[in-house]
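Model: You mentioned two targets. I'll fold them one after the other.
Researcher: Yes, keep them separate.
Model: Target one:
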Amino acid sequence: MNKQNRLDELLSYKILDTPPEKTLDEFVEIAATICDTPIALISILDEKRQWFKAKIGLDVTETPIEDSFCQYTLYSPDSIMVINDALADKRFVNNPLVVGDPHIRFYAGAPLVTPEGNVLGTICTIDKKPKEITERQKKALCLLSIKIMDHFNASNYISKQKKIISKTANRLRHITDHLPGAIFEFEMNANGKMSMPFVSHGIFKLYPSLDTNTEVITPEMIFQAIHPDDLPKVVQSIESSFQTLNTYVVEFRVMKNNESIEWHKVIASPERKKNGTVWYGTVQNITNQLEYENTLEQMAFDISHVLRRPVSTLLGLTNIIEKDKAIDPAKLKKYVSFIKTVSEELDAFTRQLNKAYKMKKRLSDTLRF
Protein backbone atom coordinates (compact mmCIF):
# COMPACT_ATOMS: atom_id res chain seq x y z
CA MET A 1 0.00 0.00 0.00
CA ASN A 2 1.42 3.37 -1.05
CA LYS A 3 2.23 5.73 1.83
CA GLN A 4 1.94 8.93 -0.22
CA ASN A 5 -1.35 7.77 -1.73
CA ARG A 6 -2.70 7.25 1.80
CA LEU A 7 -1.58 10.69 2.94
CA ASP A 8 -3.01 12.35 -0.18
CA GLU A 9 -6.38 10.68 0.39
CA LEU A 10 -6.32 11.59 4.07
CA LEU A 11 -5.82 15.26 3.17
CA SER A 12 -8.66 15.07 0.65
CA TYR A 13 -11.06 14.24 3.50
CA LYS A 14 -10.10 17.47 5.32
CA ILE A 15 -10.58 15.86 8.75
CA LEU A 16 -7.40 16.99 10.51
CA ASP A 17 -7.72 19.79 13.05
CA THR A 18 -11.47 20.13 12.59
CA PRO A 19 -13.83 20.87 15.52
CA PRO A 20 -15.50 18.08 17.53
CA GLU A 21 -18.69 16.56 16.16
CA LYS A 22 -21.50 15.28 18.35
CA THR A 23 -22.04 12.13 16.27
CA LEU A 24 -18.40 11.09 16.52
CA ASP A 25 -18.25 11.91 20.24
CA GLU A 26 -21.16 9.50 20.67
CA PHE A 27 -19.34 6.81 18.69
CA VAL A 28 -16.33 6.85 21.04
CA GLU A 29 -18.67 6.72 24.05
CA ILE A 30 -20.34 3.67 22.52
CA ALA A 31 -16.93 2.04 21.91
CA ALA A 32 -15.87 2.64 25.52
CA THR A 33 -19.17 1.19 26.75
CA ILE A 34 -18.96 -1.89 24.51
CA CYS A 35 -15.42 -2.75 25.63
CA ASP A 36 -15.84 -1.46 29.19
CA THR A 37 -12.77 0.78 28.99
CA PRO A 38 -12.14 4.25 30.45
CA ILE A 39 -10.60 5.56 27.20
CA ALA A 40 -11.82 5.51 23.61
CA LEU A 41 -10.56 7.48 20.64
CA ILE A 42 -11.07 8.18 16.96
CA SER A 43 -7.43 8.53 16.00
CA ILE A 44 -6.37 9.99 12.64
CA LEU A 45 -2.76 9.52 11.52
CA ASP A 46 -0.89 11.87 9.23
CA GLU A 47 2.85 11.79 8.47
CA LYS A 48 4.08 12.88 11.91
CA ARG A 49 1.32 12.50 14.48
CA GLN A 50 -1.85 10.79 15.56
CA TRP A 51 -4.57 13.36 16.11
CA PHE A 52 -7.78 12.62 18.01
CA LYS A 53 -10.93 13.63 16.16
CA ALA A 54 -13.03 12.38 19.10
CA LYS A 55 -12.00 11.18 22.55
CA ILE A 56 -13.23 10.16 25.95
CA GLY A 57 -11.06 9.65 29.05
CA LEU A 58 -8.02 11.46 27.62
CA ASP A 59 -6.99 15.13 27.83
CA VAL A 60 -4.34 15.37 25.10
CA THR A 61 -5.38 16.02 21.48
CA GLU A 62 -2.45 14.35 19.70
CA THR A 63 0.77 12.36 20.17
CA PRO A 64 3.80 11.66 17.94
CA ILE A 65 3.07 8.95 15.39
CA GLU A 66 6.11 6.91 16.46
CA ASP A 67 4.52 6.47 19.93
CA SER A 68 1.13 5.42 18.58
CA PHE A 69 -0.33 1.94 18.68
CA CYS A 70 -2.53 2.82 15.69
CA GLN A 71 0.46 3.07 13.31
CA TYR A 72 0.53 -0.74 13.15
CA THR A 73 -2.96 -0.82 11.66
CA LEU A 74 -2.11 1.41 8.67
CA TYR A 75 -1.17 -1.47 6.43
CA SER A 76 -3.62 -4.03 7.85
CA PRO A 77 -7.02 -2.72 6.71
CA ASP A 78 -8.77 -6.07 7.05
CA SER A 79 -8.10 -6.89 10.69
CA ILE A 80 -8.67 -5.45 14.14
CA MET A 81 -5.59 -5.01 16.31
CA VAL A 82 -5.82 -6.18 19.95
CA ILE A 83 -3.04 -5.84 22.55
CA ASN A 84 -4.11 -7.58 25.77
CA ASP A 85 -1.02 -6.47 27.75
CA ALA A 86 1.35 -3.89 26.27
CA LEU A 87 4.10 -4.83 28.75
CA ALA A 88 4.11 -8.33 27.27
CA ASP A 89 4.58 -7.02 23.70
CA LYS A 90 8.15 -6.12 22.72
CA ARG A 91 6.85 -3.40 20.33
CA PHE A 92 5.39 -1.43 23.24
CA VAL A 93 7.28 -2.40 26.37
CA ASN A 94 9.32 0.82 26.27
CA ASN A 95 6.63 3.00 24.66
CA PRO A 96 6.28 6.41 26.43
CA LEU A 97 2.49 5.96 26.48
CA VAL A 98 2.95 2.63 28.29
CA VAL A 99 5.68 3.48 30.79
CA GLY A 100 4.21 6.98 31.24
CA ASP A 101 0.81 8.65 31.14
CA PRO A 102 -1.79 7.33 30.24
CA HIS A 103 -0.07 3.98 31.14
CA ILE A 104 -1.66 1.93 28.38
CA ARG A 105 -1.86 -1.82 29.04
CA PHE A 106 -4.84 -2.86 26.90
CA TYR A 107 -5.52 -1.61 23.35
CA ALA A 108 -8.08 -2.61 20.68
CA GLY A 109 -8.28 -0.68 17.41
CA ALA A 110 -10.43 -1.21 14.31
CA PRO A 111 -9.05 0.52 11.19
CA LEU A 112 -10.96 3.29 9.40
CA VAL A 113 -10.70 2.19 5.78
CA THR A 114 -11.55 4.34 2.74
CA PRO A 115 -13.21 2.92 -0.39
CA GLU A 116 -9.73 3.05 -1.96
CA GLY A 117 -8.41 0.72 0.75
CA ASN A 118 -6.36 3.31 2.64
CA VAL A 119 -6.41 3.42 6.45
CA LEU A 120 -6.98 6.90 7.87
CA GLY A 121 -6.75 5.84 11.53
CA THR A 122 -8.73 3.78 14.02
CA ILE A 123 -11.61 3.67 16.43
CA CYS A 124 -9.83 2.33 19.48
CA THR A 125 -10.41 1.59 23.14
CA ILE A 126 -7.74 1.73 25.84
CA ASP A 127 -7.46 0.52 29.41
CA LYS A 128 -4.78 1.00 32.06
CA LYS A 129 -4.91 -2.67 33.03
CA PRO A 130 -4.56 -5.87 30.99
CA LYS A 131 -7.80 -7.35 29.67
CA GLU A 132 -9.39 -9.36 26.91
CA ILE A 133 -12.46 -8.74 24.78
CA THR A 134 -14.85 -11.17 23.11
CA GLU A 135 -15.34 -11.76 19.39
CA ARG A 136 -18.70 -9.97 19.64
CA GLN A 137 -16.97 -6.92 21.11
CA LYS A 138 -14.40 -7.03 18.31
CA LYS A 139 -17.20 -7.25 15.74
CA ALA A 140 -18.94 -4.31 17.38
CA LEU A 141 -15.77 -2.21 17.07
CA CYS A 142 -15.48 -3.15 13.38
CA LEU A 143 -19.11 -2.16 12.81
CA LEU A 144 -18.41 1.18 14.51
CA SER A 145 -15.40 1.74 12.23
CA ILE A 146 -17.67 1.19 9.20
CA LYS A 147 -20.22 3.68 10.55
CA ILE A 148 -17.51 6.26 11.23
CA MET A 149 -16.20 5.91 7.68
CA ASP A 150 -19.77 6.25 6.38
CA HIS A 151 -19.89 9.54 8.28
CA PHE A 152 -16.52 10.70 6.87
CA ASN A 153 -17.43 9.63 3.34
CA ALA A 154 -20.78 11.40 3.51
CA SER A 155 -19.15 14.58 4.86
CA ASN A 156 -16.48 14.40 2.19
CA TYR A 157 -19.08 13.93 -0.55
CA ILE A 158 -21.19 16.82 0.77
CA SER A 159 -18.12 19.05 0.96
CA LYS A 160 -17.18 18.26 -2.65
CA GLN A 161 -20.76 18.82 -3.82
CA LYS A 162 -20.85 22.16 -2.02
CA LYS A 163 -17.71 23.20 -3.88
CA ILE A 164 -19.22 22.12 -7.20
CA ILE A 165 -22.46 23.92 -6.41
CA SER A 166 -20.59 27.03 -5.29
CA LYS A 167 -18.43 27.00 -8.43
CA THR A 168 -21.49 26.48 -10.64
CA ALA A 169 -23.41 29.19 -8.80
CA ASN A 170 -20.51 31.62 -9.21
CA ARG A 171 -20.30 30.80 -12.91
CA LEU A 172 -24.04 31.29 -13.37
CA ARG A 173 -23.90 34.52 -11.38
CA HIS A 174 -21.08 35.76 -13.61
CA ILE A 175 -23.07 34.88 -16.72
CA THR A 176 -26.32 36.44 -15.51
CA ASP A 177 -24.53 39.57 -14.32
CA HIS A 178 -23.13 40.15 -17.82
CA LEU A 179 -26.31 39.50 -19.75
CA PRO A 180 -28.06 42.49 -21.30
CA GLY A 181 -30.84 43.56 -18.97
CA ALA A 182 -31.62 41.60 -15.82
CA ILE A 183 -32.97 38.18 -14.84
CA PHE A 184 -35.31 37.99 -11.87
CA GLU A 185 -37.56 35.86 -9.71
CA PHE A 186 -40.67 37.66 -8.55
CA GLU A 187 -43.29 36.39 -6.07
CA MET A 188 -46.75 37.46 -4.99
CA ASN A 189 -48.84 35.72 -2.37
CA ALA A 190 -52.63 35.50 -2.17
CA ASN A 191 -52.71 38.69 -0.06
CA GLY A 192 -50.93 40.66 -2.76
CA LYS A 193 -47.59 40.92 -0.95
CA MET A 194 -44.73 41.08 -3.47
CA SER A 195 -41.05 40.17 -3.18
CA MET A 196 -38.00 39.52 -5.38
CA PRO A 197 -36.01 36.55 -4.01
CA PHE A 198 -33.48 36.86 -6.83
CA VAL A 199 -32.43 39.55 -9.29
CA SER A 200 -29.20 39.66 -11.31
CA HIS A 201 -26.68 42.47 -11.06
CA GLY A 202 -27.88 43.93 -14.35
CA ILE A 203 -30.75 45.56 -12.46
CA PHE A 204 -28.34 48.28 -11.28
CA LYS A 205 -27.51 49.20 -14.87
CA LEU A 206 -31.19 49.41 -15.75
CA TYR A 207 -32.01 51.45 -12.64
CA PRO A 208 -28.98 53.58 -11.68
CA SER A 209 -30.95 55.13 -8.81
CA LEU A 210 -30.65 51.82 -6.92
CA ASP A 211 -27.81 51.61 -4.42
CA THR A 212 -25.37 48.89 -5.58
CA ASN A 213 -24.77 48.01 -1.91
CA THR A 214 -28.43 47.11 -1.48
CA GLU A 215 -28.63 43.42 -0.57
CA VAL A 216 -32.38 43.03 -1.07
CA ILE A 217 -34.15 44.55 -4.08
CA THR A 218 -37.89 45.00 -3.57
CA PRO A 219 -40.61 45.50 -6.20
CA GLU A 220 -41.38 48.85 -4.59
CA MET A 221 -37.87 50.08 -5.45
CA ILE A 222 -38.51 49.26 -9.12
CA PHE A 223 -41.98 50.80 -9.06
CA GLN A 224 -40.51 54.11 -7.89
CA ALA A 225 -38.54 54.39 -11.14
CA ILE A 226 -41.52 53.66 -13.41
CA HIS A 227 -43.24 56.62 -15.06
CA PRO A 228 -46.30 57.48 -12.92
CA ASP A 229 -48.60 57.27 -15.95
CA ASP A 230 -47.44 53.70 -16.69
CA LEU A 231 -47.40 52.30 -13.14
CA PRO A 232 -51.14 51.40 -13.06
CA LYS A 233 -50.67 49.44 -16.30
CA VAL A 234 -47.75 47.53 -14.83
CA VAL A 235 -49.62 46.63 -11.63
CA GLN A 236 -52.71 45.62 -13.60
CA SER A 237 -50.62 43.34 -15.82
CA ILE A 238 -49.18 41.60 -12.75
CA GLU A 239 -52.63 41.06 -11.25
CA SER A 240 -53.97 39.73 -14.56
CA SER A 241 -51.08 37.25 -14.89
CA PHE A 242 -51.62 36.22 -11.26
CA GLN A 243 -55.26 35.38 -11.98
CA THR A 244 -54.86 33.75 -15.42
CA LEU A 245 -51.30 32.35 -15.23
CA ASN A 246 -50.68 33.84 -18.66
CA THR A 247 -47.18 35.04 -19.51
CA TYR A 248 -46.64 38.50 -18.08
CA VAL A 249 -45.60 40.94 -20.83
CA VAL A 250 -45.58 44.69 -20.34
CA GLU A 251 -43.73 47.72 -21.73
CA PHE A 252 -43.35 50.87 -19.69
CA ARG A 253 -41.40 54.08 -19.42
CA VAL A 254 -38.71 54.68 -16.82
CA MET A 255 -37.57 58.04 -15.49
CA LYS A 256 -33.77 58.27 -15.42
CA ASN A 257 -31.73 60.41 -13.04
CA ASN A 258 -31.29 63.13 -15.65
CA GLU A 259 -35.06 63.10 -16.24
CA SER A 260 -34.70 61.42 -19.64
CA ILE A 261 -37.08 58.63 -20.62
CA GLU A 262 -36.22 55.01 -21.36
CA TRP A 263 -38.52 52.18 -22.36
CA HIS A 264 -38.30 48.84 -20.54
CA LYS A 265 -39.98 45.53 -21.32
CA VAL A 266 -40.71 42.68 -18.92
CA ILE A 267 -41.44 39.11 -20.02
CA ALA A 268 -42.05 36.58 -17.23
CA SER A 269 -43.58 33.12 -16.99
CA PRO A 270 -45.77 32.46 -13.93
CA GLU A 271 -45.87 29.29 -11.87
CA ARG A 272 -48.45 28.61 -9.20
CA LYS A 273 -47.02 27.77 -5.78
CA LYS A 274 -48.65 26.69 -2.54
CA ASN A 275 -48.68 30.20 -1.08
CA GLY A 276 -49.06 32.25 -4.25
CA THR A 277 -47.41 32.68 -7.64
CA VAL A 278 -43.79 33.03 -8.72
CA TRP A 279 -42.60 34.55 -12.01
CA TYR A 280 -39.27 33.83 -13.71
CA GLY A 281 -38.40 36.44 -16.27
CA THR A 282 -36.27 39.18 -17.76
CA VAL A 283 -36.40 42.96 -17.96
CA GLN A 284 -34.77 44.67 -20.94
CA ASN A 285 -34.08 48.22 -22.04
CA ILE A 286 -35.94 48.41 -25.38
CA THR A 287 -35.38 52.12 -26.06
CA ASN A 288 -33.04 51.41 -28.99
CA GLN A 289 -35.38 48.75 -30.31
CA LEU A 290 -38.29 51.19 -30.35
CA GLU A 291 -36.14 53.79 -32.06
CA TYR A 292 -35.19 51.17 -34.62
CA GLU A 293 -38.83 50.29 -35.21
CA ASN A 294 -39.74 53.96 -35.52
CA THR A 295 -36.92 54.41 -38.02
CA LEU A 296 -38.25 51.53 -40.11
CA GLU A 297 -41.76 52.99 -39.99
CA GLN A 298 -40.46 56.39 -41.07
CA MET A 299 -38.49 54.78 -43.88
CA ALA A 300 -41.58 52.92 -45.07
CA PHE A 301 -43.56 56.18 -44.98
CA ASP A 302 -40.84 58.06 -46.88
CA ILE A 303 -40.56 55.38 -49.52
CA SER A 304 -44.32 55.19 -50.06
CA HIS A 305 -45.06 58.94 -49.86
CA VAL A 306 -41.97 61.04 -50.45
CA LEU A 307 -40.90 59.12 -53.54
CA ARG A 308 -44.35 59.22 -55.04
CA ARG A 309 -44.13 62.84 -56.25
CA PRO A 310 -40.70 62.71 -58.01
CA VAL A 311 -41.47 59.32 -59.54
CA SER A 312 -44.82 60.59 -60.84
CA THR A 313 -43.05 63.65 -62.28
CA LEU A 314 -40.47 61.52 -64.09
CA LEU A 315 -43.18 59.26 -65.49
CA GLY A 316 -45.11 62.30 -66.69
CA LEU A 317 -42.06 63.84 -68.39
CA THR A 318 -41.12 60.60 -70.15
CA ASN A 319 -44.71 60.24 -71.30
CA ILE A 320 -44.72 63.77 -72.76
CA ILE A 321 -41.41 63.19 -74.53
CA GLU A 322 -42.70 59.97 -76.05
CA LYS A 323 -45.86 61.62 -77.37
CA ASP A 324 -44.16 64.79 -78.66
CA LYS A 325 -43.34 63.83 -82.28
CA ALA A 326 -41.89 67.22 -83.21
CA ILE A 327 -39.80 67.96 -80.15
CA ASP A 328 -37.30 70.77 -80.76
CA PRO A 329 -33.96 71.25 -78.96
CA ALA A 330 -35.29 74.01 -76.73
CA LYS A 331 -38.15 71.86 -75.48
CA LEU A 332 -35.83 68.89 -75.01
CA LYS A 333 -33.43 71.05 -73.02
CA LYS A 334 -36.32 72.18 -70.82
CA TYR A 335 -37.43 68.58 -70.25
CA VAL A 336 -33.87 67.56 -69.43
CA SER A 337 -33.72 70.40 -66.89
CA PHE A 338 -36.89 69.10 -65.22
CA ILE A 339 -35.50 65.55 -65.19
CA LYS A 340 -32.23 66.77 -63.68
CA THR A 341 -34.08 68.61 -60.90
CA VAL A 342 -36.17 65.56 -60.04
CA SER A 343 -33.10 63.29 -60.22
CA GLU A 344 -31.26 65.56 -57.80
CA GLU A 345 -34.21 65.32 -55.42
CA LEU A 346 -34.11 61.53 -55.71
CA ASP A 347 -30.34 61.49 -55.16
CA ALA A 348 -30.66 63.61 -52.03
CA PHE A 349 -33.37 61.35 -50.69
CA THR A 350 -31.44 58.15 -51.36
CA ARG A 351 -28.52 59.65 -49.45
CA GLN A 352 -30.84 60.21 -46.51
CA LEU A 353 -32.03 56.61 -46.79
CA ASN A 354 -28.45 55.39 -46.78
CA LYS A 355 -27.81 57.42 -43.65
CA ALA A 356 -30.90 55.90 -42.01
CA TYR A 357 -29.76 52.37 -42.93
CA LYS A 358 -26.42 53.00 -41.26
CA MET A 359 -28.22 54.12 -38.13
CA LYS A 360 -30.36 50.98 -38.34
CA LYS A 361 -27.21 48.84 -38.46
CA ARG A 362 -25.79 50.55 -35.36
CA LEU A 363 -29.07 50.00 -33.52
CA SER A 364 -29.17 46.37 -34.67
CA ASP A 365 -25.62 45.81 -33.40
CA THR A 366 -26.52 47.40 -30.09
CA LEU A 367 -29.55 45.12 -29.71
CA ARG A 368 -27.53 42.05 -30.64
CA PHE A 369 -24.88 42.61 -27.99
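Model: Target two:
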Amino acid sequence: MTGSTTVNIHSLISTFYQPKGTRTQIIADELNFPSDIYALKGQIQIRGLDPEKELILIRSRDGRYLDEDAIAAAMTDETALVFLPSVLFRSGQLLDMGFLIREAHKKGICIGFDCCHSAGVVPHRFSEWDLDFAVWCSYKYMNGGPGSPAFLYINSKHFHKTPLWPGGTDVKKTGSLT
Protein backbone atom coordinates (compact mmCIF):
# COMPACT_ATOMS: atom_id res chain seq x y z
CA MET A 1 0.00 0.00 0.00
CA THR A 2 1.62 3.22 -1.15
CA GLY A 3 1.09 6.39 -3.10
CA SER A 4 -1.58 6.92 -5.69
CA THR A 5 -2.40 4.87 -8.75
CA THR A 6 -0.68 7.23 -11.18
CA VAL A 7 2.44 7.60 -8.99
CA ASN A 8 2.60 3.80 -8.74
CA ILE A 9 2.24 3.47 -12.52
CA HIS A 10 5.15 5.86 -13.01
CA SER A 11 7.28 3.95 -10.47
CA LEU A 12 6.58 0.56 -12.03
CA ILE A 13 6.88 1.66 -15.65
CA SER A 14 10.17 3.42 -14.79
CA THR A 15 11.47 0.11 -13.48
CA PHE A 16 10.02 -2.30 -16.06
CA TYR A 17 10.17 -0.26 -19.29
CA GLN A 18 13.75 -0.68 -20.42
CA PRO A 19 13.80 -0.13 -24.18
CA LYS A 20 16.73 -1.89 -25.85
CA GLY A 21 17.53 -2.53 -29.48
CA THR A 22 14.33 -3.07 -31.40
CA ARG A 23 12.26 -3.57 -28.22
CA THR A 24 11.10 0.00 -27.65
CA GLN A 25 7.30 -0.10 -27.78
CA ILE A 26 4.69 -0.21 -25.05
CA ILE A 27 1.35 -1.83 -25.85
CA ALA A 28 -1.73 -0.38 -24.18
CA ASP A 29 -5.30 0.14 -25.40
CA GLU A 30 -7.32 3.07 -26.66
CA LEU A 31 -10.08 2.47 -24.10
CA ASN A 32 -7.75 2.69 -21.10
CA PHE A 33 -8.20 5.26 -18.35
CA PRO A 34 -6.72 8.55 -19.65
CA SER A 35 -4.28 9.07 -16.76
CA ASP A 36 -2.72 5.66 -17.49
CA ILE A 37 -2.08 6.74 -21.09
CA TYR A 38 -0.61 10.08 -19.93
CA ALA A 39 1.79 8.22 -17.62
CA LEU A 40 2.87 5.84 -20.40
CA LYS A 41 3.47 8.71 -22.83
CA GLY A 42 5.47 10.52 -20.15
CA GLN A 43 7.68 7.50 -19.49
CA ILE A 44 8.39 7.17 -23.21
CA GLN A 45 9.22 10.88 -23.49
CA ILE A 46 11.54 10.79 -20.46
CA ARG A 47 13.65 8.30 -22.40
CA GLY A 48 13.88 10.64 -25.38
CA LEU A 49 11.54 8.53 -27.51
CA ASP A 50 8.42 9.54 -29.42
CA PRO A 51 5.11 8.40 -27.87
CA GLU A 52 3.44 8.63 -31.29
CA LYS A 53 5.75 5.84 -32.50
CA GLU A 54 6.44 3.87 -29.34
CA LEU A 55 2.99 3.71 -27.68
CA ILE A 56 0.90 1.17 -29.54
CA LEU A 57 -2.77 1.56 -28.64
CA ILE A 58 -4.87 -1.48 -29.43
CA ARG A 59 -8.04 -0.37 -31.17
CA SER A 60 -11.55 -1.41 -30.22
CA ARG A 61 -13.90 -2.49 -32.98
CA ASP A 62 -16.93 -0.97 -31.29
CA GLY A 63 -15.59 1.55 -28.75
CA ARG A 64 -16.55 -0.69 -25.83
CA TYR A 65 -14.67 -3.99 -25.97
CA LEU A 66 -11.20 -5.28 -26.83
CA ASP A 67 -10.26 -8.42 -28.73
CA GLU A 68 -7.72 -10.30 -26.61
CA ASP A 69 -6.42 -12.20 -29.66
CA ALA A 70 -5.68 -8.84 -31.33
CA ILE A 71 -3.76 -7.74 -28.24
CA ALA A 72 -1.70 -10.95 -28.30
CA ALA A 73 -1.07 -10.58 -32.04
CA ALA A 74 0.24 -7.03 -31.51
CA MET A 75 2.99 -8.35 -29.21
CA THR A 76 6.06 -8.38 -31.48
CA ASP A 77 9.84 -8.24 -31.34
CA GLU A 78 9.44 -4.47 -31.02
CA THR A 79 7.40 -4.74 -27.80
CA ALA A 80 9.27 -3.90 -24.62
CA LEU A 81 6.26 -3.85 -22.29
CA VAL A 82 2.50 -4.41 -22.16
CA PHE A 83 0.30 -2.42 -19.75
CA LEU A 84 -3.45 -2.99 -19.78
CA PRO A 85 -6.49 -2.59 -17.55
CA SER A 86 -7.88 -5.74 -15.98
CA VAL A 87 -11.40 -4.39 -16.55
CA LEU A 88 -12.40 -1.76 -19.09
CA PHE A 89 -14.04 1.04 -17.15
CA ARG A 90 -16.26 1.99 -20.11
CA SER A 91 -17.90 -1.41 -20.57
CA GLY A 92 -16.97 -3.65 -17.65
CA GLN A 93 -15.20 -6.15 -19.94
CA LEU A 94 -12.95 -8.36 -17.82
CA LEU A 95 -9.83 -9.19 -19.80
CA ASP A 96 -8.44 -12.72 -19.60
CA MET A 97 -5.33 -11.78 -17.67
CA GLY A 98 -3.99 -15.33 -17.55
CA PHE A 99 -4.14 -15.65 -21.35
CA LEU A 100 -2.51 -12.27 -21.95
CA ILE A 101 0.25 -12.97 -19.42
CA ARG A 102 1.03 -16.33 -21.05
CA GLU A 103 1.10 -14.74 -24.53
CA ALA A 104 3.42 -11.93 -23.39
CA HIS A 105 5.79 -14.30 -21.61
CA LYS A 106 5.96 -16.64 -24.64
CA LYS A 107 7.46 -13.65 -26.47
CA GLY A 108 9.77 -12.57 -23.64
CA ILE A 109 7.70 -9.49 -22.80
CA CYS A 110 6.94 -8.12 -19.31
CA ILE A 111 3.29 -7.35 -18.68
CA GLY A 112 1.48 -5.32 -16.05
CA PHE A 113 -2.12 -4.47 -15.29
CA ASP A 114 -4.07 -1.60 -13.80
CA CYS A 115 -6.56 -3.43 -11.59
CA CYS A 116 -8.42 -0.39 -10.23
CA HIS A 117 -11.69 -1.56 -11.74
CA SER A 118 -11.39 -5.15 -10.56
CA ALA A 119 -9.66 -5.08 -7.13
CA GLY A 120 -12.22 -5.77 -4.45
CA VAL A 121 -14.68 -7.33 -6.92
CA VAL A 122 -12.80 -10.00 -8.88
CA PRO A 123 -10.38 -12.55 -7.39
CA HIS A 124 -6.81 -12.10 -8.59
CA ARG A 125 -4.07 -14.74 -8.64
CA PHE A 126 -1.08 -12.61 -9.61
CA SER A 127 1.62 -15.05 -8.45
CA GLU A 128 -0.19 -18.09 -9.84
CA TRP A 129 -0.63 -16.35 -13.21
CA ASP A 130 3.05 -15.21 -13.11
CA LEU A 131 2.04 -11.56 -13.57
CA ASP A 132 5.04 -9.23 -13.61
CA PHE A 133 3.44 -6.21 -11.90
CA ALA A 134 0.13 -4.51 -11.11
CA VAL A 135 -1.37 -1.39 -9.55
CA TRP A 136 -4.79 -0.77 -8.05
CA CYS A 137 -6.60 1.71 -5.86
CA SER A 138 -8.65 1.37 -2.70
CA TYR A 139 -11.14 4.16 -3.30
CA LYS A 140 -13.51 2.39 -5.70
CA TYR A 141 -14.61 -1.14 -4.86
CA MET A 142 -12.63 -1.30 -1.62
CA ASN A 143 -14.69 1.66 -0.34
CA GLY A 144 -11.71 3.77 0.74
CA GLY A 145 -13.11 6.98 -0.71
CA PRO A 146 -11.25 10.01 -2.08
CA GLY A 147 -7.63 10.35 -0.97
CA SER A 148 -7.26 6.73 0.10
CA PRO A 149 -4.01 4.96 -0.82
CA ALA A 150 -3.26 2.77 -3.78
CA PHE A 151 -1.34 -0.50 -4.03
CA LEU A 152 1.33 -2.04 -6.18
CA TYR A 153 2.42 -5.60 -6.78
CA ILE A 154 5.75 -6.88 -8.09
CA ASN A 155 6.24 -10.58 -8.75
CA SER A 156 8.97 -11.98 -6.48
CA LYS A 157 10.95 -13.06 -9.56
CA HIS A 158 11.66 -9.34 -10.08
CA PHE A 159 12.80 -8.54 -6.53
CA HIS A 160 16.39 -8.32 -7.82
CA LYS A 161 15.50 -5.28 -9.95
CA THR A 162 16.67 -1.91 -8.72
CA PRO A 163 13.72 0.47 -8.47
CA LEU A 164 14.15 3.28 -10.96
CA TRP A 165 12.67 6.73 -10.96
CA PRO A 166 11.54 8.79 -13.94
CA GLY A 167 14.40 9.19 -16.37
CA GLY A 168 15.92 5.87 -15.30
CA THR A 169 17.84 7.28 -12.33
CA ASP A 170 19.20 4.47 -10.19
CA VAL A 171 18.87 5.70 -6.60
CA LYS A 172 21.52 3.24 -5.38
CA LYS A 173 24.13 4.72 -7.76
CA THR A 174 23.34 8.40 -7.29
CA GLY A 175 22.40 8.40 -3.61
CA SER A 176 19.53 10.80 -4.29
CA LEU A 177 16.54 11.39 -6.49
CA THR A 178 18.08 14.45 -8.20
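Researcher: Noted. Anything on target two?
Model: The radius of gyration is 15 Å.
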